[in-house]
Amino acid sequence: MFRLSSQIEAILYLKGQPLDLAAIAECAGCDRDAAETAMIELMDDYNHRDSALEVVETPTGYTLQLRSSFQTLIDKMIPPEIGTGALRTLAAIAIKGSISQTDLVELRGSGAYQHVQELVEVGFVRKRRQVGSRSSLLQVTDKFHRTYELKDLPIQQLVAAATSEPEVAEQLEIATILNREEHGVDSTTEPA
């Protein structure tokens, strides 16, 4: 039979959220005092382990979590959640390669201002002031390419991944055609 502290460790892992002692005791099938004693034992055990995990008490209960010293690893490995609108704005920037914020707002609407701010904060977009212009130049970052690994996908797949709405897909296709024309590529042929 497992020690109670091991059973509580499994409960914390499986629940994936903070639990108070009453909930832990109920899940473990023991009384509150036994759960508290086992929790202290478990926390002490984790404090002496050379482990990436720790058991901590939060305002809402006890939780098993990754140590804060691993935050940079979390940032690198887990892409942040972005809303659908921001994701579509990100796709438009990626398709264009670089685009002025003014042109992006024309393409995506005034909500693009907030999307750009969000995308800059999570590190997917770089915003640079253009010389002689009030508008900023927007480009996707290396973090975007590492996270989404879309460098070699055809434009149509990027558009399909970014949106299921025909209206937005059409806007992205137009942006693609304009981008090709700016770079002297025949927009009537499919990309290789």
Structural overview:
The protein has 192 residues and is of the alpha+beta class. It contains 10 helices and 5 strands, in the order H-H-H-E-E-H-H-E-H-H-E-E-H-H-H. The protein has helices spanning 4-15, 21-28, 32-48, 71-77, 84-96, 101-108, 112-121, 142-148, 155-162, 166-182; strands at 53-58, 61-66, 98-100, 125-129, 136-140. The strands form 2 sheets. A 3-stranded antiparallel β-sheet has the order 3-5-4. It has a two-stranded antiparallel ribbon with strand order 1-2. A hairpin with a 2-residue loop joins strand 1 (53-58) and strand 2 (61-66). The longest helix is centred in the N-terminal third of the chain and has 17 residues, at 32-48. The protein is elongated. The N and C termini lie far apart (62 Å). The model is unreliable at 187-192 (pLDDT under 50).
